[in-house]
Specification:
Layout (H helix, E strand, L loop, with lengths): L14 H11 L4 E3 L5 E2 L2 H10 L7 E8 L6 E9 L15 H7 L3 E10 L5 H21 L4 H13 L3 H14 L7 H17 L3 H14 L4 H13 L3 H13 L10 H18 L3 H14 L4 H12 L8 E2 L17 E7 L6 H6 L7 E6 L6 H7 L3 E4 L6 H11 L4 E4 L4 E2 L5 H8 L5 E9 L6 E9 L15 H6 L3 E11 L5 H21 L4 H13 L3 H14 L8 H18 L2 H14 L4 H13 L3 H13 L4 E2 L5 H18 L3 H13 L5 H14 L3 H14 L4 H13 L3 H14 L4 H13 L3 H14 L5 H12 L3 H14 L4 H13 L3 H13 L7
Parallel strand pairs: 3-5, 7-8, 7-10, 8-9, 12-14
Antiparallel strand pairs: 1-4, 2-5, 3-4, 6-15, 10-13, 11-14, 12-13
Helix pairs in contact: 4-5, 5-6, 5-7, 6-7, 7-8, 7-9, 8-9, 9-10, 9-11, 10-11, 11-12, 11-13, 12-13, 19-20, 20-21, 20-22, 21-22, 22-23, 22-24, 23-24, 24-25, 24-26, 25-26, 26-27, 26-28, 27-28, 28-29, 29-30, 30-31, 31-32, 32-33, 32-34, 33-34, 34-35, 35-36, 36-37
Length: 856
């Protein structure tokens, strides 16, 4: 052994008490305290030996250096005189500093370090954090003026992502005022981290006054300056942001609080890169981002931003491309080149002729590979002089397309599907592209005119070179092979009109069929992140949200897409992780992932739309409004992801209205909803519904009713519009009309419980209690865990003086949700009626405790 003196201590949730038990056993002039996961390097061991010769009338700070994922370092008193008056205090995050302060013993700095390894297992770390938080909360309840513990509790919530709870504790310190907080250090940190909570919630303007309070107390604090720079960056005030971020790099990282100086410098350099980029200072942006990537190579954001910046000089916008206008005139070049149209088809006799007619005069060769038609498809293709190939179908679109490439003899390949049409005005423009040389390939705009009216970029024209092949069985791609050959990819505004997938049932059937093929492919090719991204999107759009999250997380955290520099897949995975969490109502996670996507490409239209949606849902209305207005001012953006451009504009107006309503700017909200309602999309009835709610708030019931009727005409199958019309009639006391509409709602949507509750209310006030009871019981069957239907039923029993039944149902409601005063009072009435006075007294005490201002 090591000759240690052994003591024993019965654990009582008090680290200070345990440490003090060890001090009672110590006989040396000095105390050096360490944890089992601390260690000293040999050089520091010598420094401790030297310190022993100092007079024992001082204490010594060492630097605690955390190792592993947490790379923070801070000063901690590790050596102090062995005196009975110096003891640890606080049950957790125990310290001798208060005792040293009372005794007037100075604490001197040293350059000695103690290295702390901590726990490698995340589960153990999380369990310890939760335990420490529990101990701190108990301590603070008994010591409410211990502002250091108060701050630590808030900081723990902050690190766990619970910014709302964190601000409760930070603001508790701030409300006291800095003159009453014993250490300005605690007030300053509370102001800084409260501001950082607001930054995380997108409330950038509100964060600035708090951060400025912190800066008044320490003007060179690196974290405060970084946070201010972050806020001004998000507000688009880049010159001010750059000034603050430069100051942060020159500032001091607080030595008394565990902060990671490298992370702070990384963040300052990263935001500086963004600011310089927006100011057009590209060389400085590159320098800052390169420094950030060097500081923390394990974090991808800076490297991705650096590579995106490199593509922008000249620009390549990553997830989207601004299509190049292609002139219609030919301009010489390499001379006449032949173009082969390549197609795969099956049972397309109704559409193939129109497709082939649309390319007459452009293509020099038509290659049609048939995968098993039983109609006149092959005959029609032959009538246009097509070269026919045959392919035995094996659930692999790439394999079939590659057969068509093998048969093609042209210098260029253009591919179409049988339900595509090529407008005649595009022919000369395509010929012009072919004259530019075979070191380029071209994206066309696919303009879907079927059930889903969306548009996106697709690689449709490329040189016929050895090594060019399609890959993946579904959503087949030719771009990976073109990239391997070093062929430059260029976006154009040339349109291909797609007419397929004409009904929801057809779309649903195709999704199901394709999903089965892709899932089978992934079993054999689990590392194929492109196919996985299509699978994830199918899960997302069909409501299989947990499976979507699992698939997207595999792409983000387990795939090689970043290593392969496939930023489109990586960023889309981040974004749709956020959108999937948004569907699940997990708004903080949704926000975090959408912001990560924004860090890589701040201009991508779907990211900005998502952040506007999330902002409205989180009631961060200034941020939501900024993103939504940016969508309207940013113009049309063509992406590789299918987008309905009208839906984007509609959603932007709708979100502007919702954000403005949340901010109380009702006239502007009304205009935004009216603008949204003018856009011919399927969902425009939703804008009218929002407009009707706005009119109801303003007391304009007639106007609310008018727009709801219009919404119902647009979408007569949406039961929500009928319900809202019925609610207005109910408010106007037109009970028969309301009852008729609520019944129509139930006929369309039998589980629409709010409509049932209103029907029950109407039956009750019209003197039909038995019918009301039956309706309320139906509502309870639909929502067995809910309280509203039970509450209504309990009050119905009470009105009828069925006290025993009322008491039973009131108790059921209380078991599901406590603190409902009307329920407690109803139960009191039934108990008093039966003379159950002890219960009455006990329950009355509970009720009155909720109203401490009431004197008894």
């Amino acid at each position: 052994g090591y000759g240690a003196t052994i003591g024993h201590f019965t654990w009582c949730d008090d680290f200070a008490a345990a440490r003090n038990a060890s001090l009672e056993l110590a006989t040396g002039d000095w105390i050096l305290w360490l944890d089992a996961d601390d260690y000293l390097l040999s050089a520091d061991l010598q420094k401790v030996a030297n310190a022993k010769s100092l007079s024992a009338d001082q204490a010594l700070y060492f630097t605690l250096v955390n190792e592993g994922a947490d790379r923070s370092r801070f000063l901690q008193v590790k050596m102090f005189p062995n005196r009975s008056e110096i003891r640890f205090e606080r049950p957790v995050h125990e310290t001798v500093v208060p005792a040293l302060t009372r005794l007037g013993i100075p604490i001197c700095s040293t350059d000695a370090e103690v290295h702390h390894t901590g726990y490698a297992e995340e589960e153990v770390t999380e369990r310890k954090k939760a335990y420490y938080q529990e101990l701190m909360l108990k301590w603070l309840a008994d010591h409410p003026e211990d502002y250091q513990t108060c701050f630590r509790i808030g900081h723990t919530f902050y690190l766990n992502g619970d910014r709302g709870r964190a601000r409760e504790y930070f603001d508790r310190i701030l409300r006291v005022g800095r003159d009453r907080v014993e250490l300005h250090f605690n007030f300053r940190l509370a102001a800084t981290f409260s501001g950082r909570c607001l930054l995380g919630d997108g409330q950038y303007e509100q964060a600035i006054p708090l951060l400025e309070q912190a800066r008044e107390l320490k003007s060179d604090d690196a974290l405060t300056l970084l946070s201010l720079g972050d806020a001004y960056t998000k507000l688009g005030q880049y010159e001010r942001a750059v000034e603050l971020l430069q100051a942060a790099l020159q500032g001091q990282v607080d030595p008394f609080f565990p902060l990671d100086a490298i992370t702070i410098e990384y963040s300052a350099q990263f935001f500086l890169g963004q600011g310089y980029r927006e100011l057009g200072r590209m060389e400085e942006a590159q320098e800052a981002l390169a420094r950030a990537a060097e500081l923390m190579p394990e974090r991808e954001e800076a490297q991705l931003a650096l590579e995106q910046l490199a593509r922008e000089i000249p620009a390549d916008p990553g997830l989207y491309r601004q299509p190049e206008a292609v002139p219609a005139e030919s301009g010489g070049g390499e001379g006449e080149k032949r173009i082969s149209l390549c197609m795969i088809v099956r049972d397309e006799e109704e559409r193939l002729g129109n497709c082939l007619e649309s390319v007459q005069g452009l293509v020099d060769e038509i290659v049609v590979v048939d995968t098993g038609s039983v109609d006149r498809t092959v005959e029609i293709a032959e009538s246009y002089g097509a070269r026919i190939g045959h392919f035995s179908w094996c659930d692999d679109f790439s394999a079939a397309r590659n057969v068509s490439l093998e048969l093609a003899t042209g210098d260029w390949i253009m591919w179409l599907d049988a339900d595509d049409l090529l407008p005649g005005e595009e022919h000369d423009r395509i010929r012009h592209l072919m004259e530019q040389g075979r070191d380029k390939c071209y994206f066309f705009v696919l303009d879907d005119q079927g059930y889903e009216q969306v548009s996106c970029l697709q690689m449709r024209l490329f040189p016929n070179l050895p090594g060019v092949t399609f890959e993946m069985p579904i959503h087949e791609q030719v771009t990976p092979s073109l990239a391997r050959l070093g062929i430059e990819m260029v976006s154009t505004d040339i349109r291909v009109v797609h007419t397929g997938y004409t009904t929801p049932d057809v779309v649903r059937a195709k999704k199901d069929r394709y999903l089965g093929i892709m899932e089978g492919w992934l079993e054999e090719h689990p590392g194929n992140y492109i196919v996985r991204s299509h699978v994830a999107l199918t899960y997302h759009t069909t409501g299989r949200l947990d499976e979507a999250i699992d698939a997207y997380r595999k792409i983000v955290y387990e795939s090689t897409c970043l290593q392969d520099r496939n930023y489109v897949v990586y960023t889309t995975a981040l974004l749709f992780l956020g959108r999937t969490y948004l569907k699940k109502g997990e708004l903080d996670r949704a926000f975090d992932y959408a912001r990560k996507a924004e860090e890589i490409d701040p201009d991508y239209i779907l990211t900005r739309l998502s952040l506007a949606e999330i902002g409205v849902r989180r009631e961060a209305f200034p941020e939501a409004l900024r993103y939504a207005q940016g969508l309207l001012s940013g113009g049309r953006q063509m992406t590789f992801f299918p987008i309905d451009q009208r839906e984007i504009v509609y959603s932007a107006h709708l979100l502007c209205g919702q954000a403005q309503q949340g901010l109380g700017v009702l006239d502007a909200a009304e205009k935004a909803f009216l603008q949204a309602a003018k856009i011919p999309v399927v969902r425009r009835g939703e804008a009218l519904g929002s407009l009707s709610e706005l009119y109801k708030i303003q007391g304009k019931l007639d106007r609310a009713l008018e727009v709801l009727k219009e919404a119902h005409e647009i979408d007569p199958d949406d039961a929500k519009h009928l319900f809202n019309i019925g609610s207005i009639y109910l408010e106007q006391k037109k009970l028969d009309e309301a009852s008729d509409l609520f019944q129509q709602v139930i006929d369309r949507a039998p589980d629409f419980s709010l409509a049932l509750l209103n029907l029950g209310y109407i039956a009750k006030v019209q003197g039909r209690p038995e019918e009301a009871e039956e309706i309320y019981r139906r509502a309870i069957e639909i929502d067995p865990d809910g309280v509203e239907a039970r509450a209504n039923l309990a009050h119905l029993h009470l009105d009828q003086e069925h006290f025993e039944e009322a008491r039973e149902v009131f108790r059921e409601v209380r078991a599901r949700k406590s603190g409902l005063v009307d329920i407690d009072l109803g139960l009191l009435a039934t108990l008093a009626r039966d003379g159950a006075w002890p219960e009455v007294v006990e329950l009355l005490g509970e009720v009155l405790s909720a109203f401490p201002e009431v004197a008894v």
